Amino acid sequence: MPKFVDPVQRRGVIADALFAIVLRRGLSKVSLRTIADETGLAIGSIRHYFSGADGIVRFALETLVERVGDRLEARLADMLPKLDAGSIDRDQAKELTVDFLSELLPLDETRRRESVVWLAFEEEARTTPELGDVFETSVRGTRALMARVVESMSARGVLHAGLDAQAEAETLAALIDGLTLRSALHPEVLAPERARELLAAHLEKLRA
C-alpha cells in the first residue's frame, strides 16, 4: 500500500524549512530548490502542496501568525478569568499581564527565531503587496489584544483615571514592536530581559 502522508504535517515541515533558511541566509535565498535541500524532499513533492516559493512564503507567514496567536489566546484564556475574578493581588496581576505581553518578546530561542523571521517577512511585505493583508490582520489582532489588556485594567480599577484606553492600547502595541525589533536584532544593545523590564515599567506607569 502507498505510504500515507499527513498533508498538514508536511506543510508544517515545509514552513519550518523556510524559517530555517530565512534565519541562516535571509528571505531572498528561499526557493523551491533551497526548501527541497532543507527538507530532503523532491521539488515535485513540494509542488504537490505549493505551486511555487511565493505560495510557501505566504503559507509560512500565516503559520507563524497562527502559532503565536494560539499561544497568546491560550495565555489570555488562562489570565483573564483570574484577573476578572479578583482572586489574585495587584502584584500577581501585574506579573501575569507582563508574562502575557512578553509572549511577543524574544525571551527564548523559539521566540527569538520567530521575531527574526517575522521582521524579515515584514521587510518583504513592504514591496510585496500580496503579503499585506496578512500583516494588516496580524497588526489589528495585536492591537485588539492590547485593547483587551487595557480594558481589563480599566474594569478592575487599576488604570489611571482619564487615560484614553484606545491610545494606550496603540502605544502598548507600538512599544512591544520596538522592544521586539531592538532586542531580536541587537541583543547586545537591548538584552531581551531588559526589554521585559521596560515593558513592566511602562505597565506600572499606567496603573492607578
Q: What is the topology?
A:
Layout: H1 7-25, H2 32-39, H3 43-47, H4 53-85, H5 90-101, H6 109-127, H7 132-155, H8 165-185, H9 192-206
Explain this structure.
By secondary structure, the protein is mainly α. It has a domain at 65-206: Tetracycline Repressor, domain 2 (Orthogonal Bundle). 75% of the residues lie in helices and 0% in strands. It is built from nine helices and no strands. The chain has helices at residues 7-25, 32-39, 43-47, 53-85, 90-101, 109-127, 132-155, 165-185, 192-206. The longest helix has 33 residues, at 53-85. It is elongated, with a radius of gyration of 20 Å. The model has no long low-confidence stretch (mean pLDDT 91). InterPro entries: BetI_C, Homeodomain-like_sf, HTH_TetR, Tet_transcr_reg_TetR-rel_C_sf. This is HTH-type transcriptional regulator PksA. Residues 31-50 bind DNA.
**Roughly what fraction of the amino acids lie in strands?**
under 5%
Count of discrete alpha- or pi-helical segments spanning 4 or more residues: 9
Radius of gyration over C-alpha positions, nearest whole angstrom: 20 Å
Q: pLDDT below 50 for ≥5 consecutive residues: which ranges?
A: none
Q: Give, in order, the helices and strands.
A: HHHHHHHHH
Question: Could you give me the name of the CATH homologous superfamily of the domain at 65-206?
Answer: Tetracycline Repressor, domain 2
Which bin fits the share of residues in helices?
A: over 70%
Total strand count, please?
0
How much is the average pLDDT? Answer: 91
Given helix and strand content, the structural type is mainly alpha
CATH topological fold name of the domain at 65-206:
Tetracycline Repressor, domain 2
Q: Which CATH architecture of the domain at 65-206 is right?
A: Orthogonal Bundle
